[in-house]
Amino acid sequence: MKISALKVLPLFFFISVSLLFMPAAHAIGTGGDLPRPKKLPPEIEDVIYEKNSLYQFIKITESKRRGERYIQNTNRMLKQGGVYINEPDKLLFEYTRLSFIGLAFLEQEPKDALFIGMGAGVMPRYFHKYYPDTNIDSVEIDPDVYDVAKKYFFYKDEKTMKVYIKDGRVFMKKSKKKYDIIFLDAYQGGHIPFHLTTREFFQVVKKRLKPGGVIVANILAEDRNRFYYSMMKTYKKEFPHLYMFEGFASDNYIFVTRVEDTKIDKFTVWQNASKLQDEKKFDIYLPEMSNAYSYYSEDDNKAEILTDDFAPVNLYKHMSAD
Question: From CA 126, how far away is CA 122, in angstroms rounded?
Fold first, then answer.
């Protein structure tokens, strides 16, 4: 069936007249006088610090337009952490916010927390804001990263916050202290150091957990992590359950696991998250994060388990650089 021009005309006429009389403040373009949107030029971030440390290249950049500051290391295209310059207590990156869903797996208020990999130090700071009485230990192998966190990212030691300049695995092997929650977020050049990915490493980690303790790990998704499926399988080999939370706007997953056999379903996580939200008044919304819950089953995973004898993560890093 044909549509006559007479029937189309009124709509066209209405749109044309509306545009003619559109107020300048709502017109497209600068000052209302340009026919098409004006694109902002690509922003060049200011480099405010660069250094080749003993372990990696470190660069600090700043976006004045967005009011943000970032830390990057050997992989110069990957931002490892960052802050809002004028609101440093807020979490800038999605994976840092999503990591705190791990609190919904705890059976009690945490008295001791451990962070392996410090980065900008924003996560220990945020944890301390809402749990000021919890003893928080951070372990960072690179002393220059610790210095950068203090100078550029508002980190400072507190009575209940301590930093240890050591390798994460060595620290946990030598330490006798146990923790309610352990965050694993150690990266160098876009990869987790291989010795922090293996079965043997997780056997050490388990010994540092209190009963009911929780492990929370930041893992890059499969499109940026060749060993993503091996990592899932390795976690499941050492722990009875693996819970995964996928970032909506990033290439990150948050893995959560415990030593206990009891499985925690999505509804329970949501209930626990809602209770915590009411109690702590987080400026992030934990119940919404529980929607990202998924439970790992290894039925169709043919990947290799990572062990100290088979952990090619660093090998792949060097292959990728060639």
Answer: 6
